[in-house]
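quick q for whoever's on today - can somebody do inverse folding on this one?? i tried earlier but teh output was garbage lol. tokens:
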């Protein structure tokens, strides 16, 4: 019993290192910022400065263009989405790629509360940009990022939300990894998207591979069913968890959703 209690304490203390896997691709963000077609997007949060890039739309800036805020998965360097998402800016929408705290040159330590607050601050900063149509800001999250994106949709008015391989609650995934631990009592960094879903009215597109073993598709189905606004689910036959955010069917559905 003493040994088990010691393990629980150790897991509680070490949970940030177990939950979050920051990437170190600061050069990727720096490369995007250095390109003439992009702008730096820095967010001073007092205790940390986040450094990202705003990929500018190739047209429509003079009247305010729509924008997509992308929230990456765990261990994902978001700068690498610039290539797959190039068609979005070419279609007339901005794309915001902002690493989480502790990821890719952004300062600070990742944590659920901090990530949620940073997302709100990033939205407010983006909505105030005269080049952006504040009424046409979309959110997109992949895997862990779906928890951040769902929270943003709950707290701010988005034009729509895309969730790729989402979970009902992050704690459920952790419970599956550590079934011998009282995860519900130990977890200090949870994202409970299912509890927020009924109160969110924005349009929803869920994209999920039906062979995903990390976050099974029933999580995505549950979110779509509980959603308070119009929602649809795109099932990708035979697809797992990795690579689903850039799957050709995902890109085609995203294009339709953004009306680009």
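ok took a stab at it. sequence:
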């Amino acid at each position: 019993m003493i040994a088990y209690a010691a393990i629980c304490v150790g897991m509680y203390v070490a949970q940030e290192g177990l939950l979050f896997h920051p990437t170190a691709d600061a050069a990727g963000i720096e490369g995007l910022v250095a390109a003439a077609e992009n702008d730096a997007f820095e967010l001073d949060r007092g205790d940390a400065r986040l450094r990202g890039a705003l990929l500018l739309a190739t047209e429509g800036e003079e009247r305010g263009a729509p924008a997509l805020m992308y929230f990456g998965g765990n261990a994902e360097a978001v700068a690498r989405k610039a290539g797959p998402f190039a068609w979005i800016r070419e279609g007339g929408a901005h794309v915001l790629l902002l690493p989480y705290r502790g990821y890719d040159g952004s300062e600070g330590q990742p944590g659920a509360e901090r990530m949620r607050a940073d997302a709100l601050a990033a939205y407010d900063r983006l909505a105030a940009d005269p080049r952006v149509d504040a009424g046409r800001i979309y959110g997109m999250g992949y895997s862990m990022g779906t928890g951040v994106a769902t929270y943003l949709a709950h707290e701010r008015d988005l034009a729509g939300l895309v969730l790729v391989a989402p979970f009902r609650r992050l704690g459920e995934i952790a419970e599956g990894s550590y079934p011998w631990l009282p995860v519900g009592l130990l977890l200090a960094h949870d994202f409970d998207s299912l509890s927020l879903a009924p109160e969110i009215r924005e349009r929803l597109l869920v994209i999920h591979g039906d062979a995903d073993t990390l976050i099974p598709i029933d999580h995505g189905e549950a979110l779509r069913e509980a959603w308070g606004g119009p929602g649809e689910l795109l099932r990708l036959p035979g697809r797992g968890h990795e690579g689903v955010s850039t799957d050709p069917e995902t890109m085609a559905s995203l294009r339709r959703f953004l009306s680009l």
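fwiw The chain has a mean pLDDT of 87. also The first strand starts at residue 38 and ends at 44. so keep that in mind when u check it
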